[in-house]
Amino acid sequence: MKTTIDQVAKHLGQEVTIGAWLANKRSSGKIAFLQLRDGTGFIQGVVVKAEVAEETFNLAKSITQETSLFVTGTVVEDTRSPFGYELQVKEIEVIHQAVDFPITPKEHGTEFLMDNRHLWLRSKKQHAIIKIRNEIIRATYQFFSENGYIKVDPPILTGSAAEGTTELFHTQYFEEEAYLSQSGQLYMEAAAMAFGKVFSFGPTFRAEKSKTRRHLIEFWMIEPEMAFMDHEESLQVQENYVSYLAQSVLTNCQLELKTLERDVTKLEKIKAPFPRITYDKAIDLLKEKGFDDIEWGEDFGSPHETAIAESFDQPVFITHYPADIKAFYMKPDPDRPEVVLCADLIAPEGYGEVIGGSQRIDDLELMKKRYEEHQLTSDAYKWYLELRQYGSVPHSGFGLGLERTVAWLSGVEHVRETIPFPRLLNRLYP
Ligand code: 4AD
Ligand code: MG
């Protein structure tokens, strides 16, 4: 019977045929161990010389890496492997022979692997990371759907920038100029006024000249937006959502976490509520930690975020940043208008900011004032202003960066490994 590796548990003791590629191989005079992968998983095929036809054993010994095969054998339990099963091979049929696959089991440099990303994706580690990415996406849909949110898709081609105009990708839109979306937020605010609780999940683009382990040029963002919710209520959604993601990965990606040698005790600690610290307190903390130069009013860089995160073993919210270093749409604190009702969620272990969010300005006059300060008077933003004109309500939302979340939960160093085909500064291929 034809099956896939993820289904072999259902066929214990039976003979099955699996379409697979040869990931790796070891052999001696009497036995060959084939590491097989079919996309759904990895399994070891054992070929015993005494139990198969001579030509089958000779074939097993000579198959080259990444050759595609139909392998027939009996599923048996194997307590030594993390997967728990192996295949006692009876027959092997070569579908297509691969010659000189460039990524051998030895160590390769990052640039070489990135040039071969289309092939590197087949490796066990990359497979595990992308499976965890998939689980985070699945859990996202489940979390928001169970909590009464509907998914709304904002446009990718836009005329209105959400996060400042310096990092935009420009493109020609017939006679007009357009941009690739940096964030769907402005559209999600319109959607929240129509559907109450909404979320989006889509690609976003930033022409940032940053070459760090946290920055991609094209990354995917989950952006919930909630009508009638204030800043504090939004923080509760965020901590519940992030806890849910961590617990889903722990439950559903045990094999992948093992493959990545992730310290799961770190993930087990990710449980709402998360600690909160104001920007003011964060400045004090940084000064205590020896960052003597940092002044109130300055934005935090990666070293600052990492230093703050080190004081907590959970993700931490930094709240109430100065209005001047945050986006035009954030609502000022009524008690202290120089700061805004916002928070960045900083992940532990140096993974940095995974969420940026805020309560939004709901007052028409104040929003008009912000437009003037930010020179946003053009037609492109007229529609956004109108959301404050017709039944304006308190509302809040946030954006979670998928790749940074995948990097953090998987424990991989750099975001380039958390998206199938990363777009980085100086890298558009493959
Ligand atoms: O903090 P940001 O810029 O917030 C927004 O775009 C808001 N409009 C979201 C909202 O309220 N709806 O970005 C949100 C998150 C960051 O916390 C980070 O995780 C991720 O997006 N992010 C990046 N991830 C990878 N590469 C980049 N260049 C990123 N820039 C932001
Ligand atoms: Mg941010």
From TrEMBL:
It comes from the Bacteria. Keywords: Aminoacyl-tRNA synthetase, ATP-binding, Cytoplasm, Ligase, Nucleotide-binding, Protein biosynthesis. CDD domains: AsnRS_cyto_like_N, AsxRS_core. InterPro entries: Aa-tRNA-synt_II, aa-tRNA-synth_II, aa-tRNA-synth_II/BPL/LPL, Asn-tRNA-ligase, Asp/Asn-tRNA-synth_IIb, NA-bd_OB-fold, NA-bd_OB_tRNA. It is found in: Cytoplasm. PROSITE patterns: AA_TRNA_LIGASE_II (PS50862). Pfam families: tRNA-synt_2, tRNA_anti-codon. Residues 130-430 form the Aminoacyl-transfer RNA synthetases class-II family profile domain. Belongs to the class-II aminoacyl-tRNA synthetase family. This is Asparagine--tRNA ligase. It comes from Paraliobacillus quinghaiensis. The lineage of its organism: Bacteria, Bacillati, Bacillota, Bacilli, Bacillales. The gene is asnS.
